[in-house]
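Hi, can you check this record?
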Amino acid sequence: MPRNLDLTALRSFVAVADTGGVTKAAAILNLTQSAVSMQLKRLEESLDQSLLDRTGRGIGLTGAGEQLLSYGRRLLALNDEVFGRMTDSAYVGELVLGVPHDIVYPAIPHVLRMFAAEHPRMRVQLVSSSTKRLVSQFEAGKCDLILTTEIESRPGGETLTEIPLIWFGAPGGTAWQKRPLPIASEPICAFRRPMQAALDTANIPWQMAVDSDSSRTIEAMVSGDIAINAQLAGSTIPQLEPVPHGGALPDLGTFCINMYVSEAPKGAVLAHLADLVRRSYMAPALALTA
């Protein structure tokens, strides 16, 4: 017939092994010393093994005790995980954070990690899309907080930082030297019109060599030296690099990273998320600078 370990007694045994004594273990477990001693005795009797070496000045482990300690820690960890998972609601609320895909890194993972550590029962749903779509979703009440890349801030927005918009291409590529200049962009990209306008002002002929709704397609074609495009400094994939045009291409100015926070009654939790985003984008170590 299967026999079951007494997890309460096992917890006392692990506590004694970790602290080196019954007195300290009892204090950690909020039990009396006699209660801990009785549990240790009961555990030894159930296993018919001597687990503690009491011959010295302190309490040590026997060979059997050392073996049980390894099992015990794993059993208790699994027990605590199961109990926590089955008895606690996973989340007590949800916030929707919208961020353009090209500024997710490096700040947003850091923000999500810090927020989760401080609010483990709050879910943050990350929506990655274009500024135009995020603004539309925010105005429809589908996002609690959004970031945008814009030339200036709209009413109700807060500018967190300004970042140079620069030309990017394939490492060692030559596409930027061609005329008409082959450029790549998504139709709804916020950088599309400024890129075209700057080239027109500089009297540089251009053609839309890659026109796709997929940012991955744009990145692949640019990294393949088929075209170049404009992106914020510090926000591109490793397969792209700033074009070394030496002034042959026009300056594209800067774009603002703006934050918009919903007025929905989500209180201090939403305010805390906004503060984490604000501090992360303003921090020198995380700001997307050239």
User: Anything to note?
Assistant: The longest strand covers residues 158-169. The chain is about 40% helix and 20% strand. The domain at 89-290 is CATH 3.40.190.290 (D-Maltodextrin-Binding Protein; domain 2).
